[in-house]
Amino acid sequence: MVIYGTGLLAFCLLAGAVVGQLLGYLLGVDANVGGVGIAMIALIVLSDRLQKRGALQPPTRQGVLFWSAVYIPVVVAMAASQNVQAAVTGGPAAITAGVASVAACLLLVPAISRLAPPLAESTFDAADANSSTDEGR
């Protein structure tokens, strides 16, 4: 059921909005700074921790997955379009900051991927697959 994941998503969205608004106030900007990103990170971290503790029942997990598939890409796309409009009107400093952050993320992908444990090698053998299909003919 999708409804079970809605409570977790709503909590993360409200928490992200509050923290983003607080960041904007502290930075002297009359806007929500990073609230959507904070909400999405909170949703990922919170659902992962709840799942590891066994507190996330299968219907709730399915609800979180549904909202991840539907809601998150829409909100991120909306936020990205607003950021592009602000960057274009904000001048070269905003565009430089955007390009630098994307470049930094791209450079960090290999370093972050090295932190993950290696995947187990597959025991699937192509020769076995071909011989089993040949036997059925």
Question: How does this model look, in words?
Answer:
The chain contains 5 helices and no strands. The chain has 137 residues and is mainly α. Helix 1 (3-27) runs parallel beside helix 3, helix 2 (35-52) runs antiparallel to helix 3 (58-90) and helix 3 runs antiparallel to helix 4. The chain is globular and about 50 Å long.
Search tags:
single chain; mainly alpha; globular; 137 residues; 5 helices
Secondary structure blueprint with pairings:
Layout: H1 3-27, H2 35-52, H3 58-90, H4 92-115, H5 126-135
Helix pairs in contact: 1-2, 1-3, 2-3, 3-4
Tally of DSSP helical segments = 5
Number of extended strands: 0
Radius of gyration, CA atoms, in whole angstroms: 21 Å
What sort of overall outline do the alpha carbons produce when their principal axes are compared? globular
Structural class per helix/strand content?
mainly alpha
Summarize the structure.
The chain is mainly alpha-helical and 137 residues long. Helix content is 80%, strand content 0%. The mean pLDDT is 76.
